[in-house]
């Protein structure tokens, strides 16, 4: 589900008018629904109740500490990829003991900090990294909990930049080398506790088939590791896709409700029904690492129309949000539904490019898109922007970062103040 809908012709997040938020806090503005995040976590957690499991939210998708606090309060764990993200988890009240640390390039300082905080496990991505963690743990007089990330060489059939489970990707250890890597860790690394196995094949998967293929391929390996190394968990990664288009019918709060089974991507129940029979016989703890699924449809980027520009080839709607605020369309060819905050059903739609103020040809949020006519000062909402939106934002063209708002029913909370020019330039010096 999601909680963005038109009420009396104006787009709301839960029960808060987006026009009101834009007028109060300015634009560009990220707005998130606490109701949606809570619903997604609760339904996913419940669907897997036949398994001993832990939902470890992928912090990189949206790392605001208010979002992390919401998930921690629901009982969730976390999947991090940097020491900075661990600091965020701790500041948000999250439990390091329910936190896994992934990523191919962990530094000494990050490993030392994670060990000092008692994280649940390092997900190591190479034999060299295992030796690195072993050395640091020995110097600290600690035993480091580790798992290895296996690369199952399964094609997730997603965008090449977010595919992570094939042999040519930088992530994980090749499937045919993984047993030797575990053996080497057990024999040569006395400061490691071998705790589990991890995999992750990619992001924005809209079919359950790649998950099933990967699980069927890796489960026999898990069984061997249970026998040889007595592992305690199997992490199946994340990657569940979300819907990036919806009718937004007034009062309809169900994202998939009006679509047939063949038209909608992977649902929670389809995912759980397919994987539970494969994983249950292992009698291991199952970890999963959803990110986009948890927060993607929970967020929107609200932007103001600066003006319309008509050329010989195209009509452009110029807005105050750019690729520095939301880079997915430029980087991943990501598609986002963009709608007027004031619903217009009287005028025919026009084909336009929706472009930002950044001095790059790639600075667009949509191209050749039907859009009802808009005027200077109108607000647009870029939907499904809760994941990999603000976390990938930048100060390119010396543009301050947007504010972030978390809506809870009728209440709207500022969870990040808009960055000022002084904030942006802080720390710079003339030599």
TrEMBL record:
Entry-linked Pfam families: Orn_Arg_deC_N, Orn_DAP_Arg_deC
Record domain Orn/DAP/Arg decarboxylase 2 C-terminal: where: 30-386
Domain of life: Bacteria
Catalytic activity: meso-2,6-diaminopimelate + H(+) = L-lysine + CO2
Keyword Acyltransferase: no
Any one GO biological process: lysine biosynthetic process via diaminopimelate
N6-(pyridoxal phosphate)lysine PTM positions: 60
Biochemical pathway: Amino-acid biosynthesis; L-lysine biosynthesis via DAP pathway; L-lysine from DL-2,6-diaminopimelate: step 1/1
Subunit structure: Homodimer.
Protein name stated in the entry: Diaminopimelate decarboxylase
Species this chain originates from: Phragmitibacter flavus
Recorded name of the encoding gene: lysA
